[in-house]
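Honest question from a wet-lab person: if I give you the sequences of every part of a complex, can you actually get the arrangement of the whole thing, not just the pieces? Trying it with mine:
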Amino acid sequence: MKQLKTELVSQKEIAASIYEAVVFHKEINESFQPGQFVHVKTGFGSDPLLRRPISICHVDPNKHELTMIYRAEGKGTKVLAEMVPGVEVDLLGPLGNGFPVERTKEGETALLVGGGIGVPPLYYLSQELTKRGVNVKHVHGFQTSSVVFYEEKFKAYGPVTITTADGTYGEKGFVTNQLDMNADYLFACGPSPMLKALENYRAKKGVYLSLEQRMGCGIGACLACVCHVQGDETGFAYRKVCSDGPVFQAGEVVL
Amino acid sequence: MSRLRVELPGLDLKNPIMPASGCFGFGKEYSQFYNLDQLGAIMVKATTHEPRFGNPTPRVAETTSGMLNAIGLQNPGLDRVMAEELPWLSRFDVPIIANVAGSTIEDYVTVAKEISTAENVHALELNISCPNVKEGGLAFGTVPETAYEVTKAVKDVSSVPVYVKLSPNVTDIVQMAKVVEHAGADGLTMINTLLGMRIDLKTGKPILANGAGGLSGPAIKPVAIRMIHQVSQQVNIPIIGMGGVQSAEDVIEYFLAGASAVAVGTANFVDPFACPTIIDALPALLDKLDVQHISELTGRSWKTEWNLQSSSH
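Yes, you can. This is the full assembly:
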């Protein structure tokens, strides 16, 4: 975990209000793992004040570049979307614990399920799993056709099924209607109703879910992003989404 | 003597900068970024008798140049703080100011009595101003009689000096300061957060699950400066100032208002290096202001020339 004053290399809107930003810093390398995130200072003054947690979509260790995809919706991400190549982007990272890529073996199968802005970290995951010889399939859900992104890019690693809530693109409905029930692993990132629906999926070797939560510090000090632990009778046990997660094995925390 | 060294009741500070309670946990997270020896002191997370989970999430919401929080005094409880957190911090050469909270006077007394015996705890910060708990907290800090009672009760049992953390959510902050001074407080820390709320336009409901929360960050600095300016002229105990401190310039402003040391809160969340960066920047700023020792600045905004001459050196 480091504070990196990166340089914005490129930024473009790849779907409605969905931005892809690439940053460079010589310390961006293979230590950044799929499922981890960076905590980004958007803007330069005290407004917006707090950093924004953004998942890591791709890391190119040779070029020392990191790609992040975010939705410009709130004040901070809108400021970030205005930034032009060449400016400094201050980020903390890599933060948190990512997907357990190292547990997977060649020839195993993994189902990657993403919802909306939860899709980007699965891209880096898909790349790393494929490198290990894991067979990946993707099921990505979006609200509507205008916010669908990265379909072709994911296809380079395995089959992609797209769902839209309004049926304007791909299959109408939710990702849960499109699940292949025979995968060794299920890896998912998305809104909590989606994660709840996936919690009881029976993957042979493990179900891992990446949670979203409002954060303060991003490093485990402020206790803004805590969640309860399943089966804890005292009520005092907790996990911090930022530093214990954001990826948890299904059944570990209360969603 | 170093130009930044400050002596306060119970505290021999190598510099007057310390992270504020609730914004630094028990130090572990920030020790990954820098050596905590650099800090003047550490105000650790509030400790209650029993463990507390705190409030449901969302617990934070950003505001213009600030943030609201409603963590709800989450902490592992007195026993674990004594057995694990404070011993872990003893590897650093830095005095700890233990923040003590509770929902009854007995709670405060129990925690204060025991935690003040820890070797590295050099002072207590009596938290009678947390806005995010249903019982105790703010209720003690907004009624003069109960503030007096809890301060006195804690003073009676504490082995180290007691600083009382004042709430800005009162009509007359000077009265509260005088009351706790009269009860025996060795110092004041001010200010705690201001009660606030944000409402989500989509849901029409408050963003924080708790509804209201405590406002911190640069947005509240002028309120803190004003209150310290008022209080420091009316009491004879030192003030550790806090509220939106982000830079060495902010620290100087607090000293001019009447503070003798300064705590850094929300800025730690934005920049994990906030405290050491401020400490490093202070000597050059003192040069620029033609000030030999930082303590010379305390209260300069209201002291008369005669006062200034007699209080320096």
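Two things worth pointing out. Residues 2-95 of chain A form a domain with the Elongation Factor Tu (Ef-tu); domain 3 fold (CATH 2.40.30.10). The two ends of chain A are 26 Å apart (CA to CA).
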